[in-house]
Design goal:
Strand content: 5-15%
Largest sheet: 8 strands, parallel
Number of strands: 11
Oligomer: single chain
Helix content: 25-40%
Length: 319
Amino acid sequence: MALPPILQSLRLPAVASPLFIISNPDLVIAQCKAGVVGSFPALNARPEPNLHAWLDRITDELDAYNQANPDAPAAPYAVNQIVHRSNNRLMHDVEACVKHKVPIVITSLGAQKEVFDAVHSYGGIVLHDVINNKFAKKAVEKGADGLVAVAWGAGGHAGLLSPFALVNEIRAWYDGPLLLSGSIASGGAILAAQAMGADLAYIGSPFIATTEAVASDEYKQSIVDSGAEDIIYSNLFTGIHGNYLRKSIENAGMDPENLPVSDPSKMNFASGGNTEAKAWKDIWGCGQGIDTVDRVMPAGELVARYITEYEAARKRLCA
């Protein structure tokens, strides 16, 4: 199945994943202008009425850019909705997306037909995060237009399956749009994701170390200085397993190698965490692919680097 038209004109086959607390209009606009789908979690716009202001600004600036650059328009943008009982502003945020006709909505932590139907009512598309084949089938049955396979090594809430296994299992029955998340941090990795069966790469952690991202200088530098061995997988902080930077756990006075297990029924995403040290704010989410991040740079420069690497990787394969 071909990609939806809205995803066919990207300069790079990639979506910048929504980063809780970190993604903001500056980052999204820069990502879209550079040629990849930029995204942000609706929960980042606080208080709730700010979501309308964010959507107005992103829409207006991208429209102005497209008018000035008709031969090289910006990529579309996406809004992430956390579909979980802990998110008490979900319907407000969905209604805002409907009002502004957000082109792409990314749903996480629950597939809800009502949300899918709301986005479809104005012609938008929904991509849904999944960590295994069971959740993938449920999302498609409820009306998702595409899937984001969140494999082992992805930042934040990540699954345990190898990207090879997860993509192969989904592709055995699903020929729709498929994105792959998990340690993708180079142009070569983007091409590899396509080679194994994904349509697009889903990239998050490298964008934390960009000038536009709302992250502390220490967080950004920690990503520059760290590698895969510095990522800790734990469910302590939100009740759902995720990947976090070792340094931030140590900064909070905890031993990364001896973290207790949290009660999954007390999942506490929207408010920031289950411990005194809050997930995302104090405990920094991050994926395993950060060894390629060698400095903090503008998002547009990072995308341009990936485009160059992607084209070089394609040439090597064809040589």
